[in-house]
Structure formats: structure tokens, C-alpha cells
Write a structure and sequence with these properties.
Helix content: 40-55%
Low-confidence stretches: 1-18, 268-276, 466-470, 486-494
Shape: globular
Strand content: 5-15%
Number of strands: 21
Number of helices: 29
């Protein structure tokens, strides 16, 4: 017969606990000796622990259960019984223990006000018993933090205790124990809260970790960053029980710097793209991360063509969105990605954008399956991204196999087995690390599914079996190309034009849309007008200012964005735009605009040369960008040529200044990273011959 007694007990405990995540703080604050500094230190510990584990930006706040005043051993035992700690269930349990501790030859004890010297077994509390109550409960993940003198002594006891916990629980659950001192080290009562709060603030700012939970290693690393090298031995954390690897995030350690990122859902509700990182910024045309406005204007013909391409009447085809650098290719692609997303269309920001748009310029809901950014992606990386788009997992590779060839073949196999049509958006193809191989080995084979069925006969399988007609594939690709000098000119930059022409060669039926034709000057003026009028300001002079700026910056939307940001921060945009010195600066494009902002940022307490070093460091970063942490300051220090005592403060000022508009952010390796907002800006910052601090044109 099935034994239900234990299960019923656990159910009652779960009902009583009422939380999936629980924080227990077991602290002895007052020993009756008049030591007010000690009591204040314990209170500081409890405050920072409670703040960390109840952080509103954490993925899930913990239900905090503080212990009552603890005087005798019986008080501790009553607390464990009252809250049924040994029967506690849930996803995560954290037990924080603090107070005076003492270590005998084999045992560590927690001292209580009623403890009697020499009667440790009767009047003190064996610390390992408290740890055991947590580790052997029914919670799936447990973390115990012991902050007492000589807490490292508990290591041997914990090792023996773990052998008495069932193998099934040890193998299935995450059980971790951290102590704040060695076996022969006392603790300073205010040192732990000081270091933990500093780690808390770093995780909210400089660390940039993007996962909802932290690993034990990440917690210990951020804690130790606040220590001087000579203090590491005394005050660093020690992990005395490893429940699943120090590098694996645990639900017991919420990340106080975590910011939930909304994801676009794509066709059929499947995850398509991360909106906040890239596509939403481009679609809105905003200049700052937190800007709530939608500034995209104009482009009706090109938007109408994209919407028609994404309509239900077509299941196959390739559409190339191309143009010169900064001419808004990513913006029109991002607009289609965002406005075509079924979940995002319910957002007030998106509804405002829909009100501004003609119905036939809006893509069908759910018309895009997946959207990827090719910037700094290898051919193998992009092939894996496409496999994810198709809902497939990249297969295992032998050491002798070419990952690009194998992934590409897997893509073809997956597409042949699908009956439905698939739509992929690929932006920034000209910024991929292996552009030629991406085109020839990853994209070219897809023509089988993109070409019209009347012109394309599916190739038979290798085993000779017949192949059913595939569902079809639509590719919407953004790629840079030089603008012809005239309608009849074909003398284009071979380097820039080569990728666009190569795509036309592998996709003979591809259509092309250019973002830098003569009509785009009007679109730039409309975009500038929207930027300058943000919040209803400058209505009287915005139109005049936009008309003055648009012909100078055309066809660069990136220069228009920077100029618009500068003008809307002035009292009279039209008057500023008319000044000869400002016009001269504007005619120098991104270089002139950035020189002016570098000069003006001095007023924010950020030296121009420091700001430039930080921007240049972001331009030299590989991959998706540069993480703040310790890397950004180190790279900027090398470029500046000297050390600053307050790099983190300088970066914080940069991100709050007008120069923040020159940066975009992304996520890579579970870290928030920063890079120049456009590749043309990155190229300019990497140019060692440019004298960015020449203020001659930055009036």
C-alpha cells in the first residue's frame, strides 16, 4: 500500500509556508552586554539580506520569515518547529545565520544570550543542526549562509552530514552552503553587510549580468571585488558545500540587477526576437534606451512593398533591403518585425505607431517567424540561429566535420520536412564575420525553397526517395551597398556592392528595395521633425530646423538622429540650425556632431578625453559589444593612457549624458554589453587619424 503520511505532512507544510521561495533569517542581535555596535551591525546584515532577496527587479521575490528574539536554545528549536523548516517545500529556500560563533575541536556552535560556558551541548546550538534542517527539507534548491566567527570549522561537519542525506535528494536538488570566515578567523560584524551591499550595487550597475539568477561563483566574485588583496584571506567567502557547480546559476541567488526583457513572439506564438536589445530601438528611431516615443516617419513606399512581400498571398521569395551606410535599412526591417508581432501590437507604443501608419504599410500579424542579426556572427553561428528559427536543435558534430556544411544540411532537411511557410529576417549581413561563406554556404542552398515553384524542381533526397513540394521560405535581408552616383551609373564600390550583387547571383528572382533614393530626404525631414517635437516642444521652429538639416545629412538617418538629439535640447532649434558654425559642423557628418557633443559633455563632469576613450573602447570590442564590469574600464584606460580612480563613475556619467545616444546595448554571454549605435560610427571611432578633441568646429 502506498505510504501517504510523509506526503500529507509535506502538503501541510507547503500550505503553511505559502511561498515557492522562502528566506529565513536566524539572527542573534543582543547578548545583553551593552554592545550597541554589535547590534547595529547585525541589523545592517539583516537589512541588506532582506533587500537583496526581496528586490523588486529580481525574477521572483522571496517570502521573508525573520526569527523572533532568540535567547535560549529552545527559542531556536521552536522557530524551526513553528515554521516547519524540516518539512518546507518550494523552489528555493535560503537560510541566513548570524551571531556569535565558537568552534571546539570538532564542532561549531552558535552562541545565544542564555548559553552557558562549558555546557555547549545543552545550552548552545550546534550550527550543523541548523544547516541540516534546511538541507534535508523538501525544497528543490537550498542555500545556507553562515556569518559567524570561525564558521569555516563547519566544513568537516557538513561533509559528513551530506552522506546522511539521501542520494536521490543530493543528486536531484541543489544544496549549497557558504560561510564568511575560515576555521580560525573571527568576523567583523559590519564587514559582511558593507561588502554585500557593495556587491548589490555593482550587480545593479557595473556587473551587467542579464540572467535572473546568479551562480555561487558570481556572488563570491562580486563580493570579493570590494576587498583589498591583503584582506582576501580574512574576509572572502568560502563554499563548504557545492550542490551543483559554482558556475551554474541557482534559484536561491536572485540577480538584483536583472531586468526582464520582453520578447517578440513571432508566428504561431513562437519566440522570434528580443525586442529591447535591437529591433525596438531601430523601429522607434529613439535616441535613448528609455525614450517612450515612436519617431519613425515616412518611408511609405518601401513599407508598403515590405508589407506586400509579407502578405498571405506569397509563401516564397527574397527581398533585399539595401542602401548606403546609415540610410535606415535596419529601421525599416525592425518596423516590420515589431509591427508584425502579435503580442507587441497590444502595447500602447505600438498602437500609437499603427495610428500613424497607412493600413497597407503594416505587415500581417505573425507574418515573421524569426529575426536575427548577422553582425559579427560567423557562418556557423548564423546557421545555428536559423536552425533555432525553425525549431530545431543543432546536431552533434564529429571532430572531422565542417560545422557550416553540417548545419546547412540540417537546415535543408528541416525545411524539406515542413509543410508550412517560414519567414526569416536577417539584418546586417554586410557586418557578418564570414560574409562570403554566409552567402555561399548558408544562404545559397536556401534558394530551393525561396524560388517560385514553377521555376524550381526540388532536388531528390540522397536515398533516391521522392521529395514532396516544400512549404516555402521568405527571406528579408538587410545588406549595405553604395548608392549609384546617377540612375545610369554602375561605377559602385566593389567592396560594398559585392555582397549585394552576390546575393542577387545566388537568388536570381530576388527583389531589391533601396533606402537612399531621392525621396528619402523628405523622410529624414519628417523624422527630424518628430524628434525635435518630442513631448510637444518646439512646434514653432521644428519644421524650419528639419528643413535646414535634412538636405545636409541626407542620406544618413544616423546623422539625422544625432542632429535631432542635439537640436531638441536647445531652446530654439531653428535658430541653432541657422548658425554658420553649426552648419559647418553638420556638414562634417558624424565626426562633426560627435566633436560638438564631446565638448559639451564637459559640463556634465565628464572630461572629453575620458568620454572619447570609453566610446573608442566600445568600438574596438569584438562580438556584440563590451561589458562594463572590469573590461570596459581596462580597455578605456589603455586608450586614454592613464589610470583614473573612478572609472565606474565616468561610465555611469557617460550612460546618463547626451553621448548615450551614440551607444546601443545588447546581451552576450549573460552580460549586458555596449557598442556604437551604428557600424559607421564604430568605423569612425576606430580611425586613429581623426582628432576628435579638435574643438574648432564644435561651437
Amino acid at each position: 500500500m502506498r505510504n501517504t503520511v510523509g506526503e500529507l505532512g509535506r502538503n501541510r507544510a507547503a500550505e503553511q509556508n505559502g511561498a515557492e521561495r522562502t528566506l529565513l533569517t536566524l539572527a542573534v542581535r543582543d547578548y545583553g552586554d551593552g554592545d550597541e555596535a554589535f547590534t547595529a551591525g547585525i541589523d545592517e546584515q539583516l537589512d541588506v539580506v532582506a533587500e537583496w532577496w526581496s528586490s523588486p527587479v529580481a525574477s521572483d521575490a522571496f517570502h521573508h520569515v525573520p526569527a523572533p528574539v532568540l535567547t535560549r536554545r529552545e527559542d531556536v528549536e521552536d522557530f524551526l518547529r513553528e515554521h516547519r523548516v524540516r518539512e518546507m517545500e518550494g523552489e528555493a529556500l535560503v537560510l541566513f545565520i548570524t551571531g556569535h560563533g565558537i568552534a571546539t575541536s570538532r564542532t561549531h556552535f552558535l552562541q545565544l544570550p542564555g548559553s552557558v560556558k562549558g555546557r555547549h551541548l545543552s545550552t548552545w546550538v550546534r550550527t550543523s543542526d541548523l544547516v541540516a534542517a534546511a538541507l534535508d527539507c523538501h525544497a528543490e534548491n537550498v542555500l545556507v549562509i553562515v556569518n559567524t566567527c570561525y564558521a569555516g570549522k563547519i566544513r568537516v561537519e557538513i561533509g559528513a552530514m551530506l552522506e546522511d542525506i539521501s542520494a536521490e535528494r543530493r543528486n536531484r536538488c541543489r544544496l549549497d552552503v557558504i560561510v564568511t570566515s575560515g576555521h580560525d578567523r573571527p568576523v567583523q560584524v559590519r564587514q559582511f553587510p558593507k561588502l554585500l551591499r557593495a556587491a548589490l550595487e555593482r550587480l545593479r550597475t557595473t556587473a551587467g549580468i542579464t540572467t535572473p539568477h546568479l551562480s555561487v561563483a558570481e556572488l563570491m566574485s562580486e563580493f570579493e571585488r570590494g576587498l583589498k588583496p591583503e584582506d582576501l584571506v580574512k574576509h572572502r567567502l568560502h563554499q563548504v558545500a557545492d550542490g551543483g557547480g559554482v558556475l551554474t546559476p541557482t534559484p536561491c541567488i536572485p540577480n538584483p540587477g536583472y531586468r526582464p526583457v520582453r520578447e517578440l513572439s513571432g508566428a504561431d506564438g513562437a519566440r522570434a526576437v528580443t525586442a529591447a536589445d535591437y529591433w525596438l530601438d531601430r523601429a522607434t528611431g529613439r535616441t535613448q534606451d528609455q525614450d517612450p516615443g515612436w519617431y519613425f516617419r515616412g518611408r511609405e513606399d518601401i513599407n508598403r512593398s515590405i508589407a506586400a512581400f509579407l502578405g498571405p498571398a506569397r509563401t516564397r521569395g527574397v527581398l533585399l533591403v539595401t542602401g548606403s551606410a546609415g540610410s535606415g535599412k535596419s529601421a525599416v526591417l525592425a518596423r516590420a518585425v515589431v509591427l508584425g508581432d502579435p503580442a507587441f501590437r497590444e502595447d500602447p507604443l505600438c498602437k500609437a505607431a499603427l495610428d500613424l501608419s497607412a493600413p497597407d504599410t503594416v505587415p500581417a500579424t505573425g507574418s515573421i517567424t524569426w529575426a536575427v542579426l548577422a553582425r559579427h556572427r560567423s557562418a556557423a553561428d548564423l546557421a545555428c540561429d536559423i536552425l533555432e528559427a525553425l525549431g530545431a536543435t543543432p546536431g552533434r558534430l564529429r571532430s572531422t566535420e565542417d560545422p557550416v556544411v553540417q548545419r546547412s544540411q540540417q537546415i535543408l532537411d528541416v525545411l524539406r520536412d515542413r509543410d508550412d511557410a517560414v519567414t526569416l529576417v536577417i539584418d546586417g549581413l554586410d557586418e557578418a564575420d564570414e560574409r562570403e561563406r554566409v552567402i555561399e554556404d548558408v544562404l545559397a542552398p536556401l534558394n530551393e525553397f525561396c524560388a517560385p515553384l514553377l521555376d524550381q524542381v526540388p532536388a531528390p533526397r540522397a536515398d533516391g526517395d521522392p521529395v514532396a513540394a516544400p512549404g516555402g521560405l521568405r527571406l528579408l535581408i538587410g545588406v549595405r551597398s553604395s548608392r549609384p552616383l546617377s540612375e545610369s551609373s554602375v561605377d559602385l564600390s566593389e567592396e560594398e556592392q559585392g555582397h549585394n550583387e552576390a546575393l542577387k547571383a545566388v537568388f536570381p528572382t530576388a527583389e531589391e528595395l533601396r533606402t537612399d533614393d531621392e525621396h528619402s530626404e523628405q523622410d529624414i525631414a519628417a523624422y527630424l521633425h518628430a524628434l525635435i517635437c518630442e513631448g510637444g516642444a518646439h512646434r514653432a521652429s521644428a519644421e524650419e530646423a528639419a528643413a535646414l538639416v535634412a538636405p545636409v545629412v541626407w542620406p544618413s538617418f544616423i546623422d539625422a538622429r544625432i542632429a535631432g538629439e542635439q537640436l531638441r535640447s536647445t531652446e530654439d532649434p531653428a535658430a541653432v540650425a541657422q548658425r554658420p558654425e553649426w552648419q559647418r559642423m553638420l556638414s562634417n557628418g558624424t565626426e562633426g556632431l560627435l566633436k560638438r557633443d564631446l565638448a559639451l559633455v564637459e559640463g556634465d563632469g565628464l572630461p572629453s578625453e575620458v568620454a572619447l576613450a570609453l566610446l573608442r573602447a566600445s568600438a574596438w570590442a569584438e562580438g556584440a559589444g563590451i561589458p562594463w564590469s572590469t573590461i570596459w574600464p581596462q580597455m578605456a584606460r589603455v586608450l586614454l593612457g592613464r589610470t583614473l580612480p573612478d572609472w565606474d563613475d565616468m561610465i555611469a556619467k557617460l550612460l546618463k549624458s547626451r553621448l548615450n545616444g551614440y551607444l546601443a546595448h545588447d546581451h552576450e554571454d549573460d552580460r549586458r554589453v555596449y557598442r556604437p549605435a551604428h557600424e559607421t560610427l564604430a568605423e569612425a571611432l576606430r580611425d586613429a587619424d581623426t582628432d576628435w578633441l579638435d574643438r574648432g568646429g564644435a561651437a
